[in-house]
Design brief:
305 residues; alpha+beta; Jelly Rolls; Arc Repressor Mutant, subunit A; 2 domains; eleven-stranded antiparallel sheet; 11 strands; 26% strand
Length: 305
């Protein structure tokens, strides 16, 4: 049995480490890994990019820990099953399902009750990825039952095939990025079957009204439901209140505006429905651990490195 630990610093300046354990003598343990050797700042400048495609077999003595993981990973069991731990939840994922490991979070991957697992995974990054995850609702999910597992598998295989091409070109980069975007949309398509229509409409109202001081009461009046019913829908699906969900949408948009525009903090606050800049800054710091100017400075320094 071997145990290893891999550490480093990601493009956000945060430290991360991965720990993993495997048995060299196990006939079930094998792994193949494909990736392009881009600099991290180049990868992060692309809309969506596959940092790796990985195939591996897990047996009962195999596990992987991620601490402050630096990518968003999509894990697809092909045979057997896997157990994943993230967000204080433990769940078994079977063939026909996908599991999302979210960037910046801690997780553990290990063999499931079947006693073996053959899986494929893809790690994603890119400057449009946070927006896509937020807009599609994928940010709120870890386990997804796929609408078309074969299509998802073929998309990952197509990406893997393109990464094997030795002659790299701008056209190939665009094609790979589009494939990654298509993969995310296919994952999101599976979510649409999960959302009750009332919840989906509430989420849409929030997304298109980030610039307004939209109240929960206004949402319930628009949807003609009670506040208790709306609260129940959000708690059941996201384990958070409608107010918390709306606030997270606003703060994610704020991070994008701070890192990609020259708008002042006051202008950004106004764009997100906050007339009081101090109140906006307080909420932003509570959610991110940094005030808006500090967050902008950190992201600006990273672009220069």
């Amino acid at each position: 049995m071997q145990q290893k630990r891999r550490s480093g610093r990601d493009v956000s300046g945060c430290f991360y480490h991965n720990s993993f354990s495997y048995d060299d003598k196990s006939p079930h343990q094998s792994q193949t890994h494909i990736a392009w050797n881009f600099e991290e700042n180049i990868k992060s400048a692309l809309p969506v990019w596959p940092n790796f495609v990985n195939r591996s077999n897990f047996h009962p003595n195999t596990w992987v820990d991620h601490t402050n993981f630096i990518y968003t990973a999509v894990e697809i069991p092909l045979e057997g099953n896997m157990r994943f731990r993230q967000r204080e939840e433990s769940m078994v994922v079977e063939s026909g399902e996908a599991y999302l490991i979210h960037r910046g979070e801690n997780s553990r991957l290990e063999c499931g009750p079947a006693g073996f697992c053959r899986k494929i995974s893809i790690g994603l990054s890119g400057n449009s990825l946070p927006s896509i995850l937020m807009d599609t609702g994928l940010i709120n999910y870890t386990k997804i039952r796929l609408a078309d597992p074969e299509k998802v598998f073929r998309l990952i295989l197509d990406i893997e095939k393109q990464l094997h091409i030795e002659e790299k070109s701008d056209e190939l980069v665009r094609e790979i990025s589009i494939l990654c975007y298509t993969l995310l949309l296919e994952l999101a398509r599976a979510l649409r079957f999960k959302y009750p229509s009332t919840l989906a409409k509430a989420m849409e109202l929030m997304t298109i009204n980030l610039a307004r001081k939209l109240t929960i009461r206004q949402i319930t009046e628009e949807l003609n439901i009670s506040q208790d019913k709306l609260e129940e829908l959000f708690q059941k699906r996201f384990r958070k209140s409608p107010k918390e969900y709306f606030l997270e949408l606003k703060m994610e948009k704020a991070k994008q505006l701070l890192s990609r525009t020259d708008l002042s903090v006051k202008q950004i606050a106004n764009q997100l429905g906050y007339q009081d800049q101090m109140n906006f800054s307080r909420l932003f710091r509570k959610k991110t651990g940094k005030n808006p100017l500090m967050y902008r400075e950190n992201t600006s320094n990273l672009k220069k490195t």
